[in-house]
Amino acid sequence: MTSAVSASGTVEPSGTWNRLSIGQKRLIWVWTFLALPVVFYVVIRFYPTVQAFWLSFTDWDLLRPAQFIGIENYTKLYNDPLFWQVFRNTFAYLIIGTPISLVISFAVAYYLDRVRFMHGFIRALYFLPFLTTAAAMAWVWRWFYQPPPIGIINGFLGVTGLPAQPFLRSTEQALPAIMVTAIWAGLGFQIIIFMAGLRAIPQTYYEAARIDGLGEWAILRKITLPLLKPTTVFLVVFSSIGFLRIFDQVYNMTSNDPGGPLNTTKPLVLMIYQTAFSSFNMGYAAAQTVVLFTILLIVSLLQLWVLRTR
Amino acid sequence: MTATAATNTELRLNSASIRPGRVLTWTLLFIGGVLMITPLLFMFSTSLKTAGQVYDLRLIPAAPTFDNYLKVLSDGRFMRWFFNSTLVAVCVTLSNVFFDSLVGYTLAKFQFRGRYLIFIAILSTLMIPTEMLVIPWYLMSAQLGWIDSYWGIMFPGMMTAFGTFLMKQFFETVPDDFLEAARVDGLNEFTIWWKIAMPMVAPAISALAIFTFLGNWTAFFWPLIVTNSRELYTLPVGLSSFAVEQSIQWEMIMTGAALATIPTLLVFLVLQRYIVRGVMLAGLKG
């Protein structure tokens, strides 16, 4: 006992350290490793989440102290025609964008999987748009959609004798025009994931099916698609969340009148951005973020439910 | 008998694989692929044209010129945005590789009370959309003077739940024997993680690094909110403001867009195999 004391007197840190059991030492290591991350998640993730919920019940413009007003922001939102317009737009992006992008990417992946000749090169062609900056590409597409004689698409329509289209200036065509850009940008990712899923299906299944005399169509329906279900569910959710959170493309393609013309392309995230950082109506914006959170939560829970009843 | 039957089927399948149908498939895929990169081709093509040639539909400019690039680069702003984006993306990537791996490793390889709770808590943050956090982050940044600072752009992304989850999955495949052997040799836990465990999950680390870098290089929403002055803009935000000013000079906008795109294309050409594999890894684990 006395030697331990004198030992700790001479080389104190290592002395105290050496007296700990292996289990205690490991526990100290664990919490040394986790200390900073725990602080990070509490301060940068959990506290702001709680704060966002709380702010959604307040009236706050950053200048005066926040005032608790109960569910007033939510009733205001419910009675706001702009919110319902934005809600419809957001779901238009989701409901049209997700199936189209999935069908195209599956078809490409399905056939690309069989191609040997210059496989890597063709795959790269499809994948490259995924690596670009959405803000930069939005401007490229915006140029494509310009009225004649500037816009490329109208230029080609003119050459073939078809009438020019207003695209981003039309209340009906602007949203689909932006959606094409978003689908184009995400296609490469979805193709790669589908191909990874296809690759994971054992070849023996296909060989057995062919020996049993199943045709290509039957193999696709009875083997490929069922075995690809986890991949498909993942991509449906991933792509849905992407379309529900669309912002970069809309903001950059309509920056003279964000979300225009006449709010027909405005998604929820753009409304949040404008309410918070143009009007500085922080409480009202927070309520909109809570609505977005709820929608995303429902989509995620649906995924869990679909996977469970496999 | 059965063996011969199988070989015959195989032979038939092989001969089937050089049918004209294959050529048609290949051709259609090739045309689709070219269509996919058409926006990029026209972007580069227009960046090499003079203002008067923008309306020319030809893909190859009559008289290609680098004047637009010289003009855009000479006013220095692009260089600054380029530097900002690089600095932010590199710092956030290093932080993620370090912390996500450290936490993933700790959760995968140590038994302690609260382990499951911490894992679930971190994972649960995946449910919270960034859009919901930006208002509190903005207030926090305003109070702490982080608006218009590199730290302000970087702090929300220093660790991610996705990265932690990815790394935990991979560290679980590292055999405990290696770590025990290192402990017997007297290495401390930090050294064991850094020198023994980390090299064993190198593919996962490269996937995480590529993903984090690309994500931060192209990030738009939060940098748009937290920066006010031009000097602090990242490349996407800078380009967006630049394009608004130049809204009639499309050849200048295309040059700016090309400058924002060239680095990622170069990175892709060099790291093609790793990027595709990284996307596959991340997609399958997610």
Radius of gyration of chain A: 27 Å
Overall structural domain count of chain B? 2
Shape of chain A: globular
* Share of helical residues of chain B: over 70%
Residue stretches of chain B low in confidence (pLDDT < 50, at least 5 long) are 1-13
- Class by alpha and beta content of chain B: mainly alpha
Mean pLDDT of chain B, to the nearest integer, reads 88
Describe this structure in words.
The complex is a heterodimer of chains A (310) and B (286). With 310 residues, chain A is mainly alpha-helical. Chain A has one domain: MetI-like fold. Chain A has 15 helices and 2 strands. Chain A has helices at residues 2-10, 12-19, 22-55, 72-78, 81-112, 119-127, 134-144, 152-159, 174-199, 203-211, 216-227, 229-244, 248-253, 268-277, 282-308; strands spanning 58-59, 67-68. A two-stranded antiparallel ribbon of chain A has the order 1-2. In chain A, strand 1 (58-59) and strand 2 form a beta hairpin. Chain B has 14 helices and no strands. In chain B, 75% of the residues lie in helices and 0% in strands. Chain B folds into 2 domains: 2-47; 67-285, MetI-like fold, CATH 1.10.3720. Chain B has 286 residues and is mostly helical. Chain B starts with a helix and ends with a helix. The chains are: A mainly alpha (310), B mainly alpha (286). Chain A: Residues 87-303 form the ABC transmembrane type-1 domain. Chain A: This is ABC transporter, membrane spanning protein (Sugar). Chain A: It comes from Pelagibacterium halotolerans (strain DSM 22347 / JCM 15775 / CGMCC 1.7692 / B2).
Give me a quick take on this structure.
With 310 residues, chain A is an all-alpha fold.
Strands, helices and their partners?
The complex is a heterodimer of chains A (about 300) and B (about 290).
Chain A: H1 2-10, H2 12-19, H3 22-55, E1 58-59, E2 67-68, H4 72-78, H5 81-112, H6 119-127, H7 134-144, H8 152-159, H9 174-199, H10 203-211, H11 216-227, H12 229-244, H13 248-253, H14 268-277, H15 282-308
Antiparallel strand pairs in A: 1-2
Chain B: H1 2-16, H2 20-47, H3 67-74, H4 77-109, H5 115-124, H6 130-144, H7 150-154, H8 161-171, H9 176-184, H10 189-200, H11 202-217, H12 221-226, H13 235-245, H14 250-285
Helix pairs in contact in B: 2-14, 3-14, 4-8, 4-11, 4-13, 5-8, 9-10, 11-14, 13-14
